[in-house]
Write a structure and sequence with these properties.
Length: about 750
Amino acid sequence: MKKSKQRKKQVMAWVLGGMLAILLLLSIGVFFWILPYSRATLDLSLLSLREEGESAKLYVPDLDCDMREENVTYHLSCERLPSVNRKRKLVNFDELPDHLVHAFIAIEDKRFFEHHGVDIIRTGHALWDFLVHKGKADFGGSTITQQLIKNLTGYRDRTPERKLTEIFTALDLEKKVDKETILTVYLNVINLGGGCEGVGAAAEYYFGKTVDELTLPECAALAAITNNPTLYNPRTHPEENTRRQRIILSEMKEKGYITSQDYDTAVNTPLVLRPEPEVNPRMTSWYTEMVAADVLRDLQARLGYTYEKASRLLSTGDLSIETVMDESLQRILTKYYETEENFPMGTHGRPQSAAVIIDPHNGDILAVAGAVGVKNAYYLQNYATAAKRPAGSVIKPPGIYAPALHEGLITWGSVWEDLPVGENEGHPWPRNADGLYRGRVTLRDAVAHSLNTVPVALAQQLGVENSFRFLKERLHMDSLIPASGKALHDMTLSSVALGQQSEGVTVREMTAAYTIFTEGLYHAPVSYRRVLDREGNVLLENKPRGERVLTRNEAALMTRLLETVTEDGTARGLWLKDKMGISVAGKTGTTQNNWDRWFIGYTPRLLCGVWMGYEYPVPLEGIDGNPCLGIFDDVMISCETVYSRAPFREGFERSPEVIPVRICPLSGQIITPDCINALPAETLPRVGWFIEGSEPRDCCRLHYSLWQEVLEMPQEDTTELSETLTTEPPIFTPFRPLLPKRKEP
């Protein structure tokens, strides 16, 4: 019996000891978990308030300046961002009426003058509520000091880490700053609806008064807004505001701030609101709103600003933004897109469209149109910069042909069998747009006529992952979705080779991908050069620079290849080329089910991407051909006529290291007399372009100085040429194993 009792005591001792050890370990763990947050502090400069300024001023370059030079001159744009969404009027502590101070304390923080930044009782209740509701309840319990920290920093995510940081920051702040200062700053930054920040702006906006003129009911009405500025706005929800106002008045009476008589008088006094101030809104263009979105994004991504801080700075911080817009081109594009008759009417109505014009030499966005029709409201859906649509065949040059050329997989002389590579639901796949298969085709034919079989076969050789990475990492097409275990992603043959993305890409990023065909450099599409604060300090800057993706020779070869699209391919017949004599390279695109049409084309000076489709995707029935070609042609004819930032040029630069060679269109091999005799009557030799050293046989290369003569030689006149060629055709293999990635040139 005694042994049994002793054993029980030993077991209990071990259990208690184990529990104490676990408790000790947990305490140590909690201590070290909390320790980093205990050092949290607030930048006291955030307490220094000033009257809000105006919205950002936009500057545009003078028309004749060269944006590639350092000394660019600007002039002020007539456009400004909306400034009506932020109002602040600073108020000192001695201007605050007692009723206003007491109203906020009664409803927001009853023990404000008693605690040291954190109300332990209220925090405990909030924590219990949080645990009981398994994290789904409102994690409240914040004091005015804590709310001030949230307003100044913008950090509002509901995580234990953020809450711990806030608690220790509040404790630290109250050691450095007195209660009067905390309350004054809080009442000057609190959101009170209607774009008002602080009680000074709210008193004027709602009642047409200064704060020292507010009555007791008006003070309680302003304090009521704080909990939910939308729900308790006295203009839009007067009943809800009145209900909460009476709760506040009751709390003030209970705390002894007002008498019962004051309470009765206040609840029976109706609020008299000042008439809504008239605002004369200035509509902003697609370009202006694109700039605002870009600056807002970069302030957060580069400088670590919260959304609230960045938005406030943009709308009331007196910023100066130096844009890269070309006013002449923007006027042309805006006028064209405002005229709805320029766009066809289909079976399902008039579709939407968007366009972006970029300087391909530095990535400057010169003009943008976000939708069809007159822009009559702020921040509408921008189909050029925000909407994502599948890219169709315009993905093929940057996603397949460019990396394949860079890796040495293809030359102009490569040939394929235009045949399906597999099946999809029992049908041959992929199908060409016209449903035909042509047998043996050259690279030129595959690009010019937008065949689907060739890029799919080439993507299999290149590797889908390699193609995806080229688009995502080298061309920065961030809209593409990596696999990462997701059900829908873009690391597929259909996405990289045929442009059938899960969500799609923007016109802006798809057009920017074509900058690599100018000099082999990728240029990020930018809408502004610099952002300066009110003191003239540079906050953000986009310096012109490119990332090397292709060699200059590879880019020149790709441009020559894309010129064939406008010569006798899917984009033939452009007036810009045929009537004005300006060289054009580019690519058309059509997506599955005929939901989207694209054309991305470029001249020696300008790059333009055009998209068309319905807001909610349906087939573009009743619309003949590719309307994007007509839009591109009309817009670019006008733009090329007035563009003044770069000297006029009709043709693309020809690299002396990219040379012409007469090849057989059926084999991709050097033309020989036997080959000429074997060609069908309607099939003529062609000139292929090769980077010097990669042509089929050096002995048969035509000297660069004679290339113009060769190109102008009648196709039928091959006798003289035949005599200079070897009778032994070289062995040619269309595909080679994937080579190791080349070093950057």
